[in-house]
Design brief:
117 residues, alpha+beta, 25% helix
Amino acid sequence: MEILGTTLRICVDDLEAAVAFYEGLTGTPALRFERGGVSVAAIGCFLLMSGPAAEIDVLRKVSATIAVKDVDEAHAALTRVGAKVIAGPVPTPAGRNLIALHPDGSVFEYVDRNAPA
C-alpha cells in the first residue's frame, strides 16, 4: 500500500472562525462540502469538521485521514496485517474511503482520489 500523505482531523464548534485561522495560517483557501449533516472545510493538511454533537462524537474517534493510492490495495494490506475494516470502502466527494480499526485500538480513515467504480 502506498501512503501519499496524512490529513489532521479537527472537530470545531465555530467553523467560520476556524476556517479564517487555518486559511491565514496556510495561505490556502478552504475547499468546503457537507456530508451527513456535517460541514467540512479542507485547508492544506487540515480537515475541519462541525455539526451535530452525535455526528461529531463519531468523527472524533478517527485519529487521522491517510491518503493512499488505492483504497482497495489499502483494504487488502490492512486486513492482511490484522486490522479490521469497520466501514467501506464507500464513495466520497473526492474518491473512496474506508475506516479501519488497527490492532492497537487506533481508528484511521483511508482515502483515495479514484472515482467510484
